[in-house]
Here is the input.
Amino acid sequence: MVIILHRQRYGYDVLIHTNDHPPPHVHVRKGNQHVRVYLYTLRITMNYGFSNRELRKIRQLIRDNHGAIIFEWERIHGKIM
Here is the structure.
């Protein structure tokens, strides 16, 4: 697992697992809370503990850093088709 954004806005860690699978997505954690977010649709899956308000903040964080996150996904997993 690679932390690509550590304790960013609102204290979230944004992670990419090195042995993960397509489609491109990140895992966001804060304390015991965890969510998976697909990068191109910003679809939320596997939400464990985040409120709707927090999910909006997480989506915005990913939008604001989308280019850097995609760069890291491709560095770890190869070019996205």
About this structure: Residues 9 and 61 are 7 Å apart (CA to CA). The chain has a mean pLDDT of 91.
